[in-house]
Amino acid sequence: MNRNNASSPRTEIGIKTKTSSSVSHSYERQDRLVAATDVLGKKWHLVILDLLQTSGPLGFCDLESAIDGISAKVLSDSLCALESKGLVDRTVLSERPVRVEYSLTIDGHRFQPIIATIRNDFDGLDWIDAERPVSSDRCD
């Protein structure tokens, strides 16, 4: 093969390489999914986003009392992570005593269709229904 030719033997026979546009596009899609999963995959993140969507801005204690089973440390860490991702805004309302309020940013509101889909369309799935234990026969 002529070295001056820009195409490689792999692309000449139709084998996609990492530099081909379709594979590059696939990597970009994977990156987006991994980034979204970083938010969606955390146990309390969607609950916090949903609560701020439905209730509006809330203080830390309001969030903590509204979310059954979350510790103050986990809530604090989750809010910090969501704030660093640009999904939650933290506003200091008063210095003494310190009072902060959390609200959704525009990007935080973009998760609502995903949350609504999970809440509405996944109804009745055994693995998501907390009332029915799922048989683990196949996992043993």
UniProtKB/TrEMBL annotation:
Classify the source by domain of life: Archaea
- Keywords of this entry: DNA-binding, Transcription, Transcription regulation
The residue ranges crossing the membrane are none
Question: Which positions carry the signal peptide feature in this UniProt record?
Answer: none
List the Gene3D superfamilies.
Answer: Winged helix-like DNA-binding domain superfamily/Winged helix DNA-binding domain (1.10.10.10)
InterPro entries cross-referenced by the UniProt entry: HTH_HxlR, WH-like_DNA-bd_sf, WH_DNA-bd_sf
A molecular function (GO) term: DNA binding
Q: Which Pfam families does this entry report, sorted A to Z? A: HxlR (PF01638)
Coiled-coil parts of chain:
none
**Listed PANTHER family:** TRANSCRIPTIONAL REGULATOR, MARR FAMILY (PTHR33204), TRANSCRIPTIONAL REGULATORY PROTEIN (PTHR33204:SF18)
Q: What is this protein called?
A: Transcriptional regulator, HxlR family
Q: Which organism is it from?
A: Natronorubrum thiooxidans
